[in-house]
Protein 1
Amino acid sequence: MRAPPGVGSVGRERSGRILGLSDRADQESVGCGRRERGRRGAGEERSMQAEQRRQRILAELALGEVQVATLCARLEASEATIRRDLRVLVERGQAQRTYGGAAPLRGSEPTVREKAERNVDAKHQLAAAAAASVRDGDMLVLDAGTTTARLASELHGRRGLTVLTNGLSVLDVLREHEDMELIVVGGAVRSISQALLGPVAESAMRLVQPDHAFIGADGVHPQWGVNCASLPHSSWKQAAAQAAQRVTVLADASKLMAAPYRWWAPMPSGTTVLSNHDARADQQAPFVDSALELQVT
């Protein structure tokens, strides 16, 4: 029996309407997914741009105090954006606010004992990793410092080493090591850091070509090098690094992009910065494609 007139067409029409709604729903669902992915992508890009801008601010801070207005002009960013970036850097402990701007964190130099009690596990990790790169018969420079002193304790069992040091803490560890030639450079004693510094210490570096220099750091920046507590520290570290065939800076995660003092020791291109696994992504990012090679252990 034939359907009443119009029934078939109505059914097809209704069916068409239902399919049309379903198609539109699918299209809208796909569109929402694309918009959501687009928003995520845009958010990630903005986050990356913000981090790059903050790294540029840290580069400015490495030279001293900066004003918000100056940063706005140099980075072509709004005042609100710069203030927000500075707030983030302050919360991370990478800067301190000043009237109208910001300044790098400046503190009094801690004693060797105080330094030895900080980040103990990280110092052990770095010392063990650094010692693994030392070969029997090497001539080494061990900079003054608590991490380098820990490295010195990891050298027992190595044969035929020659170690030059300006660190009294390193001397304490190695002075009874029989199968090693230990050379302590001269210079003036800086009691708070237990380091021998000055022209006499630096001149010793012009007479040797060590296989490997291990340098301590109060902070490390991919452009400026190693942050130092004084100008004599800076001059010594630079002299030791220039003399050696290989250079490794020992810097736990708290030292990356830190600038507690006003003095810097530039490091040769190809210098390895050895840090521990606590280093955040934003601390590691500035070292990508830089002259200093960051290795996280």
Protein 2
Amino acid sequence: MVFEKLIAGEIEPVEFYENSVVTKDGKERIVAWHNSVFRDERGNIVSTLSSGEDITDQKLLEQRLHHTQKMEALGTLIGGIAHDFNNKMGGITGNLYLAKKEALAIPSIFNKLEIAEELCFQMTGVIKQLITFTQKEMIEEDEISLNECVKEVLGTHKFDVSENISLYIDLAENDLYIRGSPMQIKQIVNNLLENAVDAIADVLHPAIQFESGMFEADDDFRSRHPEQKNTLFAHLEVKDNGTGIPHEDMEHIFEPFFTTKNKIIGQGLGLSVVYGLVQNHNGIIDINSSPGLGTSVHIYLPLIEKE
């Protein structure tokens, strides 16, 4: 059909174009086509030659490079602002403390100063989260169990999770040992739990699942993460049946202050902090999401191999 239209002059020949194809196993691949046309002595097209090249891996690498460069640029910009803001906030809280001492005998003023001080402390917490996102910190190389970190966080917050939420926990039978900071790993788990709870707020039968296991990097994983040299990982998946993330928002989900939630509900720092903490541990974070079907967050942390 296309060749007939070329012969008839209904369409112009295209030397190069890309399109998506679906393989027999249902996977989508991107193919780059290079086309040549052959003409007779009168200039009419008599035949064509087309060759296709699978450039899916190349496109994925380009996307990851673009994402990495964008996150580094954001980190540089936000890091400078956050540190400067943190220094100024220290001066403000110091002066508020002194003002409170002088206002002890005037309750109405003292109470207002206390409110201002509390707001400053809240902003300091936001700044600390920004700094976590913007710089790769040196962490203590403690040997820790991923499963124990997950159990501790879920045990601490089990009364905070609404009774109508089904919480499924399926952790590996054998402990998964990694090197890193227990506090940071727990913060990763805590942020993912809070994100999942927010995502299922309007779901009729809300459910969250935590699952862990050992993961061995395969060809597909290595093609998506060529910079990762480790082979064995402790894998944590946090899955919800919430609203999901629109395709057009996926490239922004790790950016600070980007959120698909009501702005009153969230600051948009949860996944940004998770991204920074995972980077601190030389790990990988992948997210799969479909609007209306839910979201799966995959965390891969280098595994300590036990004898």
Protein 3
Amino acid sequence: MRTIREYLRTRVLLGSAVILAAGFVVLALAMRRLDIQEFDERLEDEARLLASLMEREGRTIKIELDHEYWPEFQAGAVPAYFQFRFVDGSVILRSESLQDGDLPLLPPVPGKPVIINSRLPDGRRGRFVQLALAPHMRETHAEINEAGHPDACHVPIPGSLQADSEIVVLGFARSREELDALLLTVYLTLAGMALLILGLIAILLRRVLRRGFQSVEEMNAQIRGLGPEAMHRRVNLSAVPGELDAVVSSLNRLLDKLETSLQHERRFTGDVAHELRTPVAEFRAACEVGAKWANDPALVERRFANLRESAANMERMLNDLL
């Protein structure tokens, strides 16, 4: 039979599990959002750093990129990717890590980065940011070395585009393995914390219920010791909680009444036995005399008269007792 203690323990643990699960899901989603936001901010910062290498000389786009300082854009184990394009889709410059591939080209949003999840050219899951850029004009008053940077890229601006508007789209992508590993660590940590807290709740709940039901167990043990031979006993708890005070008081009053009734019954039985002992003895003596002198009609008649008188006395006694 299921006990109240088991019912309370099950309900509290289930309720705690639901509350913890809901709380940690909300916390996990919030931390996931913050981690992704931080990752995207770093991604955007890297993209804008790349964009700072681009400038315009008249109707020519110039990008100076020293691959010695940007090894991650070369073909390797965990490369990053970038691609400069005009808004019409024509390529200005792409990273060596792209080889013959292309990054996604999304509808440009002026003044706002577009960040999405994307599958990288090498098949890994990645994060992609796209910036719509207006190339800044190179200062003409400075002395310029005509040879320029050995890795500089010069691309003329198509005639259909206005040179002073956001005509360049920069796409930058990086693997999100680091982000996914961080999120997995966060999820596992939160799950472990939830299980730990739930375990602590179960241990604490067990102790609390044991202590809380101690009075009930004590009362049950005393009730099991009651019986006809121990009617003098009463339920006497070391500490009576308010919930059991009325129960204990009512039970003790009932035991008082039962003991009084049992005593009255015993006295009644003793009185009946005492009052009936004499008439029964007279019946037995009359029967013995009648059996011994059966041929004496006068004696037998007197004995029957005595029996009638004894029966009448017994009837009066029973009426008095009842």
